Amino acid sequence: MTNRDDLVAACDRLLEPERFKDYTLNGLQVAGRDRVVRVMSGVTACQALLDEAVAWQADLLLVHHGYFWKNEPVAITGMKRRRLATLLAHDINLLAYHLPLDAHRELGNNAELGRRLGFTVTGCADGALGEGLVWLGEPSPGLDALGLARKVGDCLGREPLLIEAPGGGEIRRVAWCTGGAQDMIATAVEAGADAFISGEISERTTHLAREMGIHYLAAGHHATERYGVQALGERLAAEFAVEHRFVDIDNPA
């Protein structure tokens, strides 16, 4: 058992959310009970995850996608009311970290995805490691676009959508940014990447990839962002006297 405020303070020290200009509130979003024994983690604080937290009698829910996004309606009605009512009725804390969890050099979504794909990290295209969001690295030797797509699919359990650039050949430098980062493709190109991996794809992404000469792999927003929150949850379990359980709510997008 640990004090909620101590746990939140530890996360804030680790992730340093004040360094990021984000689209949402990072940190404690909904306060529940003061004492924490069970921490459940998941990608998005959807109703299905809330119901799992209630069933497991979790004290704190740790997510990457929480609530209170920029420009969303402020009225507490409908779906938003049901979600908040569930948390409040069961005295469950909601702790959410968005960009700070993407960028963290050890526990972040990009760090964890690169580790699982066996990339040798060489830096970031848009800032220092721990600050930038577009990571750069070297894949295993001999991989072409199809080989990289197979590797990503095997790792994530989800076949990526591959847009091949003209020419083919071995991929020597790869860039990646988890989630909805398809419009950072130009940053990857400018950094000299042969391939760029992210979560989502837009209609324009296909043309950009082909005309800029870079392979693009849309591997799933949810699929690419499952690992940072798990790593953070395991860190909390190791440092505090709490149980941790990750719940993966299926999401094909």
Provide a descriptive summary of the structure in words.
By secondary structure, the protein is of the alpha/beta class. It is built from ten helices and 13 strands. The chain has helices at residues 4-15, 47-56, 78-89, 99-103, 109-116, 145-156, 185-190, 203-212, 221-224, 227-239; strands at residues 2-3, 27-30, 35-36, 38-44, 60-65, 93-96, 120-124, 135-138, 161-163, 174-176, 195-198, 215-218, 243-246. A six-stranded mixed β-sheet has the order 7-8-10-11-12-9. A five-stranded mixed β-sheet has the order 2-6-5-4-13, with helices on both faces. α5 (109-116) crosses α10 (227-239). The mean pLDDT is 97.
Question: What's the structural blueprint in terms of helices and strands?
Answer:
Layout: E1 2-3, H1 4-15, E2 27-30, E3 35-36, E4 38-44, H2 47-56, E5 60-65, H3 78-89, E6 93-96, H4 99-103, H5 109-116, E7 120-124, E8 135-138, H6 145-156, E9 161-163, E10 174-176, H7 185-190, E11 195-198, H8 203-212, E12 215-218, H9 221-224, H10 227-239, E13 243-246
Parallel strand pairs: 4-5, 4-13, 5-6, 10-11, 11-12
Antiparallel strand pairs: 1-3, 2-6, 7-8, 8-10, 9-12
Helix pairs in contact: 2-3, 5-10
Reading the helices and strands in chain order gives EHEEEHEHEHHEEHEEHEHEHHE
Span from first to last CA? 36 Å
Mean pLDDT: 97
Total of helices:
10
Give start-end ranges of low-pLDDT stretches. Answer: none
Radius of gyration: 19 Å
Helicity range: 25-40%
Task: Report the portion of residues in β strands.
Answer: 15-25%
Secondary-structure-based class equals alpha/beta
